[in-house]
Prior knowledge:
Elements: H1 3-9, E1 13-20, H2 23-32, E2 39-46, E3 64-71, H3 80-97, E4 103-105, E5 109-112, E6 115-125, E7 128-136, H4 144-147, H5 158-177, H6 181-191, E8 199-202, E9 205-212, E10 218-221, E11 229-231, E12 236-238
Parallel strand pairs: 1-2
Antiparallel strand pairs: 2-3, 3-7, 4-5, 5-6, 6-7, 8-9, 8-12, 9-10, 10-11
Helix pairs in contact: 3-5, 3-6
This protein binds biotin.
Amino acid sequence: MTLRAELARRGLRLQDEDAVDSTNRIAVDAARQGVEEGLVVRARSQTAGRGRQGRTWNAAPGDALLVSFVRRPAVPLSEVTRLTLAAGLAVRDVAAEAGVDAWIKWPNDVFVGPKKLAGILCEWAGDALVVGIGVNLRTDRLPPEVRDHAACLGPTDPDDLLLRLADRLLGLEELIEDGGWIAVRARCAAAMWPMLGADVAVDGGPAAVVGLDEDGALLVRRPGADTPERLLAGDVHLGTEGATCCS
Length: 247
Ligand code: BTN
């Protein structure tokens, strides 16, 4: 069965592109124009890929899986963080299936050791959530300064990877919508094991990671503070962290 047909069986419609500026840009525009849930925009290369915190994520043909899912989740706005965290878990799980032992750096970056394997950018577009995922497939053609900080899955059939990722993502989404967040949260926390107890920098200041709370917020304790602080968004910096891929 073709990828398009396999995705259609799962209620997903593939928009397959060769070269784009950003799959998220295309998916967000489509969502704002009212496209139904289930659109999947996949591209072979990307020249103005969007990342979190103003980062960019570009890729030459074949170097990365570049995909954006348009979802209209049946969860209250206050619980959408659960889905964005679950996207990181979906990537981690797919990497594990491929024999790559990855961990999640809160909120949803995926690392192998100190190197970044995948980045995720979730964007709101009206009442739709666009889940944009970039997974490195190979790093040998990247500029050295980027390559040094990037991990990859290695030889992988990109169609098969997309299918497995879609299955994981939709499976976790369904679980969360059906009240299974507690179990998903526990799996996310376990997959963040290198961060737990680690010394990090938050907004330039030192802190220690305490855990992940019931809403998916990261709990960090600043020096001298009695109670942990809840981080709902942003980045924390670990000593082991590599630079982000790419450009
Ligand atoms: C980050 O690490 O800051 C997130 C990077 C997210 C990149 C992916 S690639 C596919 C999708 N399209 C985009 O423009 N961005 C996401």
